[in-house]
TrEMBL record:
Name of the protein in its database record: ATP-dependent RNA helicase
Similarity field: Belongs to the DEAD box helicase family.
EC number: 3.6.4.13
Catalytic activities: ATP + H2O = ADP + phosphate + H(+)
Known function: RNA helicase.
Domain Helicase C-terminal: 276-436
Domain DEAD-box RNA helicase Q, chain residue ranges per copy: 56-84
Main location: nucleus
Enzyme type, top EC level: hydrolase
Source organism (scientific name): Neolecta irregularis (strain DAH-3)
Cellular component, GO annotation: small-subunit processome
Length: 788
């Protein structure tokens, strides 16, 4: 019996205990909710839910109705593996390191916790920046923003999902920054705002997300990220996602993660790339790569292809499939337009640099072709990840030079990349070499691009760390140049080891500024981790300050630091004895991610070629006919008078030397001539004597003028009288020829004549008084000629 009693008591006791525990739990939950409402604890809603059970559908997630509504609109039903594993942890407020294959849905795995994290905290405009998402490239930022607005569209508690994208007007961003609650941006631009935007603070930040974390944490962004972290509160949630996740303790320590949960979805899998992706490689000697690529395009006209290689030449050869081109030097609007066109097209080939190597989610890409081998297996994984996204099929082709084959394939195997070797049928082979040569010959721009592609490629090989795979000695330079249509291999100068080291040290200090500039200019932070970028940062800054200057096409062309390779005959033209060519910084064709291997690349003065072309530009401008309006304006008298040079009055001395009218006398000479007062009196005396003389001359001159005037009048009157038939008579004294006189008329005229001319009254006929003057003689001659 005692046993029975014992059992009864323990059951009762257990019941009591459970009841008290339950009421304690209820009290605790109530308390937690209160805290959550007041914002004192970080996650509330999810503590009430059991997130330990396997959740497979979005509808099973304890999400706010706003996020759930947004997800319903997106038609997503089941959770992707990474979402299933990472979301419960992230929603609980844990720090998460998420690794999953490309295209497996990582973006949603951090967007949902960000939106939810702020929604449950009832975050509003006055709370400031709540979440910061850092993405390495602008394209990725755009993609994240698209998703964020999709899923967060119903959220009324988050007033706005503001955006900051590198490359936009800094001032506009600054104005909007203070109102932001969620910020998506590139690292460089973020740091720039933290340093330079007054009033911008991240003290209240709750969640930090690093998208493509391995890339963001690598050497190139190291300083920038450290700078950003310094400005963030340590008490925050941090989420890191990438296809190739970092596990470096050092990296994680830098981010001050708190007991992070490592969520790796495909770690146990045989492949680190999507299972739906078929991967091939083909061994092609470097000089035959373009031929192979062209043949490939010709045989895949109905596909959507992404290629990393030269675009300009292929565009001119019309392979029969629309071609697009995307690179970091394009403006953000152009990039967005091309990205949209590629996304919406079904049959198209996009030639691109590594700006689309990561994260971008183009729908339905059939092929990713890599004409050059990437620097490492991780980069390869990200590149091929642009196809076979989220359970779709895709194919990838990698061209390897014979020397690269064995070690690179080994590297891929180590990273669990299943890749198969294929060969190209000889019937499918084509040669574009001759076409390229003809193009280079006709068009200097193509030649320039060919040279640039050559330099970029060689440089990329030189920079690669993996010396076992990439060997400079293996390169068939002349043959490769010929395959690009060039007459010979351009010469390339690589800096000495010492210079490289000096630059490297310098680079460390410059990197921060460079990152800022990058995000301020093109925002593609993917370029900031290259040493070339650092070297060019200064020149970019200079260029920006020189913005006011009008720059011609040639200026732009020559501002590139590989200007000397433009054309060899320019060099010959100016007899420039430069036998070296500096490597190119515009990695449009071959982007290199490696950062700890610097090249020497000094910033130069404008070269002779540049000056020469400037001269030619000026001459052309001068030759250009002015507009009609300008020509007329220039000819107007007013303009001539206005533009005419102002004369200076000079006086000439006896020797014919010119002097200004007033010359200051030598002081010594002046003092020698006596006291100033006396000199003044003497001067006045001389001047008054001169004036008297001049006065007399003037009087004589005016008398003469008066006399001449009278004589002219006389002659005129004589002429008039002769017109009226009055015959002047001969005057004995004058010995003028006798003439017949009309008595009657003479009488009548005589009165007038004598009145005016004081002619002697004794003569009935009037006399010509004085024939000395020219006028009198002319009048008489005219009279006689008329024969009257
Ligand atoms: N649960 C889901 N159901 C269906 N489609 C999904 C789901 N989650 C994501 N997707 C889709 O899968 C595609 C790839 O997703 P996302 O871009 O997030 O991949 P990722 O893992 O970030 O790739 P990467 O490593 O290349 O950046 C997108 O088109 C996205 O809309």
């Amino acid at each position: 019996m005692p046993g029975r009693i014992k059992v009864g008591r323990s059951k009762e006791a257990r019941q009591q205990k459970r009841q008290s525990e339950e009421s304690e739990l209820v009290r605790l939950k109530q308390r937690i909710e209160e805290f959550a409402r007041s914002g004192l604890i970080r996650i509330s809603a999810y503590l009430k839910q059991d997130l330990s059970k396997e959740i497979t559908k979005f509808s099973e997630l304890p999400l706010s109705k706003e996020t759930a509504q947004g997800l319903k609109q997106s038609h997503f039903v089941t959770l992707a593996d990474i979402q299933r594993k990472a979301l419960p942890l992230a929603l609980k407020g844990k720090d998460v390191l998420g690794a999953a294959r490309t295209g497996s849905g990582k973006t949603l795995a951090f967007i949902i916790p960000v939106l939810e994290g702020l929604l449950v905290r009832k975050w509003n405009q006055h709370d400031g920046l709540g979440a910061l998402i850092i993405s390495p490239t602008r394209e990725l930022v755009c993609l994240v923003l698209k998703l964020e607005s999709l899923y967060g569209s119903g959220s009324s508690d988050i007033p706005s999902s503001p955006k900051v994208i590198g490359g936009k007007d800094l001032q506009t961003e600054r104005d909007r920054l203070s109102k932001m609650n969620i910020l998506v941006c590139t690292p460089g631009r973020m740091l720039q705002h933290m340093d330079q935007t007054a009033g911008f603070e991240a003290n209240n930040l709750q969640i930090l997300v690093l998208d493509e974390a391995d890339r963001i944490l690598d050497m190139g962004f190291r300083k920038t990220i450290d700078g950003i972290i310094e400005n963030l509160p340590p008490n925050r949630q941090t989420l890191l996602f990438s296809a190739t996740q970092t596990k470096s303790v050092g990296d994680l320590a830098r981010l001050s993660l708190k007991e992070p949960e490592y969520v790796a979805v495909h770690e146990a899998s045989q492949s680190s790339t999507p299972e739906t992706l078929q991967q091939h490689y083909v061994v092609v000697p470097l000089p035959n790569k373009l031929d192979t690529l062209f043949a490939f395009l010709k045989t895949h006209l109905k596909s959507k292809i992404l290629v990393r290689f030269a675009y300009e030449t292929f565009k001119r050869m019309h392979p029969g499939i629309p071609l697009l081109h995307l690179h970091g030097k394009q403006k953000q609007t152009a990039r967005a337009e091309i990205t949209a066109r590629f996304s919406s097209s079904k049959q198209v080939c996009l030639f691109s640099t590594d700006i689309v190597a990561r994260g971008l989610d183009f729908p339905a890409v059939d092929w990713v072709v890599q004409v050059d081998a990437p620097e490492d297996a991780d980069t390869y994984i990200h590149r091929v990840g642009r196809t076979a996204r989220y359970e779709r099929n895709g194919r990838a082709l990698l061209m390897l030079s014979p020397g690269e084959e064995s070690s690179f394939v080994e590297r891929l195997c180590t990273k669990k990349v299943p890749i198969e070797k294929i060969t190209i049928k000889s019937s499918k082979r084509l040669s574009v070499k001759e076409q390229l040569q003809a193009m280079c010959f006709k068009d200097p721009e193509i030649k320039y691009l060919g040279q640039k592609a050559f330099v970029s490629y060689i440089r990329s090989i030189y920079l690669k760390k993996d010396r076992e795979t990439f060997n400079m000695q293996d390169l068939l330079l002349e043959e490769y140049a010929a395959s690009l249509g060039l007459a010979g291999a351009p010469k390339i100068k690589f800096g000495s080891t010492c210079q490289a080291k000096a630059l490297k040290n310098n680079t460390q200090t410059k990197r921060l500024t460079a990152a800022e500039i990058s995000s301020g200019s093109d925002g593609d932070d993917s370029s900031t981790n290259t040493p070339e970028f650092e070297a060019s940062a200064q020149s970019r800054r200079e260029r920006r300050t020189d913005k006011a200057k009008i720059r011609t096409k040639y200026d732009r062309m020559f501002e590139r630091r590989n200007q000397d390779i433009l054309s060899e005959h320019y060099g010959k033209l100016i007899k420039e004895n430069k036998d070296t060519i500096d490597a190119d910084v515009d990695d449009d064709f071959m982007a290199v991610k490696r950062t700890d291997h610097d090249l020497v690349d000094e910033i130069r003065e404008p070269s002779e070629v540049q000056k020469l072309v400037h001269g030619m530009e000026l001459i052309n401008q001068m030759r250009k006919p002015p507009s009609k309006r300008k020509a007329q304006q220039a000819l107007s008298k007013k303009a001539i008078a206005k533009n005419a040079p102002k004369g200076t009055r000079l006086v000439f001395d006896d020797e014919g030397e010119a002097h200004p009218i007033y010359e200051l006398q030598d002081e010594q000479f002046f003092l020698k001539a006596g006291l100033p007062e006396r000199q003044k009196l003497e001067y006045l005396k001389i001047q008054s004597g001169d004036m008297e003389e001049k006065d007399l001359l003037d009087k004589q001159h005016s008398k003469e003028k008066h006399r001449e005037k009278i004589l002219r009048r006389k002659a005129r009157e004589r002429e008039e009288s002769s017109d009226e038939g009055v015959q002047p008579v001969s005057n004995d004294e004058d010995k003028s020829p006798p003439v017949l006189v009309d008595e009657e008329k003479t009488k009548k005229r005589k009165v007038n004549w004598f009145d005016d001319h004081h002619m002697p009254k004794k003569n009935k006929a009037f006399q010509v008084g004085d024939l000395n003057s020219l006028e009198d003689q002319e009048a008489l001659a005219a009279y006689l000629l008329r024969g009257e």
